[in-house]
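Chapter summary example.
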Amino acid sequence: KEQRIVYVPDTRRVSEIAFPTLRLSVEEVADTRSVLCVPLQVGDRNLGVLEYYSAVPNAFSQREMQVVGTFAHQATVAIERARLYAQECN
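The structure predicted for these 90 residues follows.
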């Protein structure tokens, strides 16, 4: 919806959204403390959102957000190419 990267550095400051509980291991769970959401978009069409969660507040640096943004762009291109290929094959 935002059509941009959304970073929530500390989920405790956002009371209107319910964030998932993270399973760290079979026995251990933790609350989500940081969230990074990157849209997967082709033009104005939204294919989905790549989401990263962390149990640590302020978990993602500017550099990490850039890397995730680049990965999301590459994934979007691959998804769109696969969709176009499947469309051609039908």
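To summarize the output: The two ends are 31 Å apart (CA to CA).
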